[in-house]
TrEMBL record:
Ranges where the Protein kinase domain occurs: 280-632
Protein name: Protein kinase domain-containing protein
Domain LysM, chain residue ranges per copy: 186-231
Keywords annotated in UniProt: ATP-binding, Cell membrane, Disulfide bond, Membrane, Nucleotide-binding, Signal, Transmembrane, Transmembrane helix
One GO MF term attached to the UniProt entry: ATP binding
Region forming the signal peptide: 1-23
Transmembrane segments: 269-296
PROSITE patterns for this protein: LYSM (PS51782), PROTEIN_KINASE_DOM (PS50011)
Compartments reported by the entry: Cell membrane
Pfam families found in the cross-reference section: LysM1_NFP_LYK (PF23446), LysM2_CERK1_LYK3_4_5 (PF23472), LysM3_LYK4_5 (PF23473), Pkinase (PF00069)
InterPro entries, alphabetized: Kinase-like_dom_sf, LysM, LysM2_CERK1_LYK3_4_5, LysM3_LYK4_5, NFP_LYK_LysM1, Plant_RLK_LysM, Prot_kinase_dom
Biased composition (Pro residues): 244-262
Amino acid sequence: MASMRLFLIFSLLLIFPLVSIKAQQPYIKKLNTNCRVRNASTSVLGYACNGVNRTCEAYLTFRSRPPYNTVTSISNLLNANATQLSQLNSVSETAAFGTGETVLVPTRCSCLGQFYQANATYVIQSGDTPFTIANNTFEGLSTCHAVQVERSNLTIDIYPGSRLTVPLRCACPTENQAADGIRYLLSYLITWGQSVSSISAIFGVNTGVTLAANQLSEQDFTIYPFTTLLVPLSDQPSRSQTIAPPPPPTTSPPPSSPPPPTSSVDNKWIYMLIGVLGGVALTSSIGFAVFWFCFLQKRKQIPPPMVSSASQSFEAIVKPGDKKLDVDEDSDFMESLNSIAQSLKVYKFEELKSATQDFSPNCLIKGSVYKGTINGDLAAIKKMHGDVSKEIQLLNTIHHHNLIRLSGVCFNDSHWYLVFEFAVNGPLSDWIYQDEHEQTTNKSLNWIQRIQIALDVANALDYLHSYTTPPYVYKNLESSNILLDDEFRAKIINFDLARSAEGQAGQFALTRHIVGTRGYMSPEYLENGLVSTKLDVYGLGVLMLEIVTGKHVYELYEKVKKNLSEVLDDVLEVEDTDENQKLTDFVDPFLQGDYPPHLAMSVIRLIDGCLDKDPSARPDMNEVSQSLSRVLTTSQAVDISVTISVQGR
Ligand SMILES: *[C@@H]1O[C@H](CO)[C@@H](O)[C@H](O)[C@H]1NC(C)=O
Ligand SMILES: *[C@@H]1O[C@H](CO)[C@@H](O)[C@H](O)[C@H]1NC(C)=O
Ligand SMILES: *[C@@H]1O[C@H](CO)[C@@H](O)[C@H](O)[C@H]1NC(C)=O
Ligand SMILES: *[C@@H]1O[C@H](CO)[C@@H](O)[C@H](O)[C@H]1NC(C)=O
Ligand SMILES: *[C@@H]1O[C@H](CO)[C@@H](O)[C@H](O)[C@H]1NC(C)=O
Ligand SMILES: *[C@@H]1O[C@H](CO)[C@@H](O)[C@H](O)[C@H]1NC(C)=O
């Protein structure tokens, strides 16, 4: 009887969330990199057994890389049937793949305990750790956590040469998915610069469906390289989908022939256009843009995707290329357009004119940025001169909820127009400074909102530092470059100063910047022009200081001789946090009574670390993000009943 009851409780625990959550399997996010933390609720151990069947056919993707670059070696590594693998990829069984090519892998997925897995057998080599096995060898198809579980069951020590079962991440369709005609789930291995919409477009799948399958949403869609994204498929995937760019339909390679030689950039581009005009990719990506816009604007009615703009995209895009770019720039340009057309909407100039009342001063937000209404949704439209392909390219490869989203472009009369999502609450600078509170009394933020904003910024910068290729340093942190959306979540804007972290800082950026936002720049940058990701860490330290004190950095500088961190000295001296008058004096008076003192002290210590004169002594952005995340969680727990101090909402 007792065991029966236990069983019931257990089954309820197991089944209830699966039934109640309509979305399917949680996306793993960055958790795969933190091998010490086990968090089964976010599926680091595998996808939950929530499908109709306990066993099913499934697919994986793998990126060919020596020594795993032939049909045989990949089949062996991933325990796949070589005959089926070669057929699926339309190559012979003896074929080799080019490095970096996406290979489709058929597999059998089955439920073991709570999680689905496909078994691979791996022979341990010296120097292997669970992380390198999962991430480097299996490229993220498994996780260190899952490998660790297998390992802990072994009674003998792991030594090079011993065999280990590596559970690969796979899943079977759920009841909801099966009802929608989904027959397979493909575990797609994400690589640099991809977004949910670009991956969905590869397989001709609706972006919204892919988001739902991974419990992602239009609010939370950031994905990271070397993790898996489930793509729901109604048919077997095929090689014509995975080789980019898709070949023209008339000359698809016959089955069992080696892969076609890689075409030149120009051909690629033409192929791409044909592919795009063919419709699938563009339709779904426009679908996503529309989807995004509508959801952002409180889920108004979704207008039908506009396929007709495909030809428009062709015209608008070809024009500047036809003009006076030299050959080198031309191919760069082509390449950047290649990626633009895959995920951006190209607007007609007339559309933007009517959106902004013919660019009337009434619609001017600031500088050359206009507020417009497109299909009933608000957008920010930025008019730009010159070659903006670099900025467009960067904006088009970053996909993070806290980095402003470029939704479309337009080219007219030698100007580019970039169309961005609109953040209704405007710049952070309107919200945090005390003197501005006095003028606009109802504009202020509570403690939790402030910490959330700092965390958003840290997450976005961590993404730029560690999850884009090449890594970027943002360099332009200041409160006016952070916009707030309707839920007071941060969106970073203005990427024109962002630099690849590998390259050197141009003099241009240096001189220009010292004029602009001196208070935010780190000492090593001001003195030696040194650019590293630690520059942004310093900048975030300054921003957090402003957020906590409600004072502008200039005002804070008035108090100190040299190092900004000196403003913290008084507060940090006091040991007893509960009776810390210095803390009360330090924190924005608007927050009095609203913040937990010991958490405020943690933030102040974090700021102190970020402002360290020695860049190498500063924490990295990932650590900052983790600390803020803890502060936020604890603040929410401490003060659930916090009064919302924002009346303006
Ligand atoms: C596990 O992940 C969930 C969802 O992200 C989170 O709420 C929870 O705090 C995590 N648990 C641990 C122990 O990290
Ligand atoms: C591999 O697949 C082929 C075709 O589906 C099948 O004939 C063959 O028996 C399979 N081989 C193994 C080892 O399962
Ligand atoms: C996968 O391996 C585990 C042992 O690690 C085993 O229990 C399970 O039966 C295997 N699954 C399949 C489908 O072979
Ligand atoms: C994970 O593996 C990839 C190659 O598969 C490598 O490029 C990347 O640097 C690895 N990540 C880490 C954190 O080592
Ligand atoms: C590994 O150990 C866990 C419990 O420690 C057990 O539930 C699981 O079945 C074991 N797996 C294998 C393959 O022995
Ligand atoms: C579940 O298995 C049955 C029998 O093999 C099959 O007919 C059905 O299509 C499967 N359902 C799904 C959703 O895969």
